C-alpha cells in the first residue's frame, strides 16, 4: 500500500538551537511530512473521520515543536515522529525538518528521518 498524506512547507516559529543566543530568540523551522495512510477508506466514504486529517496533524506538529524547544533538529524530528505514530496511528513517516538561514551560504539545512514500517 503506497498511499500517503502529505504536509509540505509547514512553518513553525519556536526556540531551537544549541547556542546560548538561540535560546533567547525564536526561529523558523520548515517541516515536510509524508505519512503512510490507506486513502481507499476516506476515498470511498468521503468522510474526514476516515482520513488522516492534515489540519489536525499540522496543529499538533506546530504545538509539539513550540513546547519542546529542541536544541537539535534531530531531537525535534524524533519526537514529532513518535507523536504521529502514537497519537495518530501513522505506521510509517518520512519527516524533513529544515532550518532556513542557519548556514548563510546554504539555502537551507536540516535532517530527514524515516520511522516505522511502510
Ligand atoms: N546535525 C545538526 N547540526 C547542527 C544543528 C542541528 O540541529 N543538527 N544545530 C546547530 C545550531 O543550532 C545552528 O543551527 C546554529 O546556526 C549546528 N549544527
UniProtKB/TrEMBL annotation:
It catalyses: 7,8-dihydroneopterin = 7,8-dihydromonapterin; 7,8-dihydroneopterin = 6-hydroxymethyl-7,8-dihydropterin + glycolaldehyde. Residues 5-115 form the Dihydroneopterin aldolase/epimerase domain. GO terms for biological process: folic acid biosynthetic process. One of its GO terms (molecular function) is isomerase activity. The keyword Zinc does not apply. SMART domains: FolB (SM00905). GO terms for cellular component: cytoplasm. Keywords: Folate biosynthesis, Isomerase, Lyase. PANTHER family: DIHYDRONEOPTERIN ALDOLASE 1-RELATED. This is Dihydroneopterin aldolase. It comes from Marinobacter adhaerens. The lineage of its organism: Bacteria, Pseudomonadati, Pseudomonadota, Gammaproteobacteria, Pseudomonadales.
